[in-house]
Amino acid sequence: MGYRILEAEDIAGHLRERGHWGTDDPVVREVSDGNMNRVFLATSTEGTRSLAVKQALPWVRVAGPSWPMSPERADAEARAYEQVAKVAPDKIPAVLGYDSDNYALVMEDMSDLEVLRTVLNDGAAYGSGTSARVGEFVAQLSFATSDFGMPSAERKALVAASVSPELCKITEDVVLSEPYIEHEHNHWHPGLDDLAASFKTDARLRTEVADLRHVFMTSAQALLHGDLHTGSIMVGAREDAPVVRVFDPEFSFVGPIGFDLGLYWANTLVSEERARALGTLADHGDQLRLSWEAFATEFRRLWPSRVDTFFDDAYLDRFLRRVWTESVGFAGAELVRRIIGFAHLADLTTLPDPVPASRRALLLGRELIVRRAELTGPDDVRAVVEALTPT
Ligand code: SR1
Ligand code: MG
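^ S-methyl-5-thioribose kinase, sequence as received from the core. Prediction below:
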């Protein structure tokens, strides 16, 4: 049977046909939230069982049919979950099945957890463990799917299978190009007019962004999540133990590891600016360091198995330096695009006055992009943040 767009009334039948549900009728509600897809929750009437169904639409959900997009992106998401399940099953939702005809995933219902961005925007701090788990997630997925963790022929097959031209093009455009040119997708608060205009004529900035764009397009280091912002992470507790789950890897492809770290860092830095503006600053400024240290520690822990091929730790040190520098640059690009590009962040847009925090974040983004080679560790990034003046 071919692809059809599922509505709430189709979900029970869809689950039943695939053996995920019995004869009873679940209560189904749509909980779509992200920019791209539809998500439904099917819950038994007594509330004891619940599943999520996520379907890719043939367009960008928030834009509608005027922005067509192949639903094949769900294949990339299913493939990414399959890879992560081998090395970090505790950091993703349980996937019960994938219907490739309808580009629909059936997954565990995570509505007992909360989206990290929502938790932060409601005023909470990160608390211990979240950023370390995210850093470990990136290390575990990227090491296992890099040439350090996978036999050469198997990896080349993964690289080929993970090619995702349409979704990569979105990132190449909305993250790594459009904010620096005139484009109908771009929009911003009028209080940022001067900065938005100056970024389009800033030769140094545009050259560095071009370099990051080219790295994104050509550096096939490892399988990425591809959209690792704080809206792609659920947090909470189960049986009194903290839980962190990374979800929504539909932008997954084999690319530069720093893209995943950089996106996360940018979103932590935006959360910091929000907290600073509201006077609720807590542990926000520690998160880049915590995730980087956890990433590097885990990557180093995994490394000994590949010493034969890459000789010794000297190359590991060089490789991690490269990942660091590129992560800083991608963090800068994510900061910029979230403020003067297409997809903005509630962290800033819901502030009583979004302008001062947005200006700081934009200027921070520029610094991270153009000065990434001279920023050699988390302390250097902190120094850049601390040097930003209230604007
Ligand atoms: C048209 S898509 C805009 C953004 O939404 C997704 O969540 C990605 O972040 C993408 O860049
Ligand atoms: Mg998403």
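The mean pLDDT is 96.
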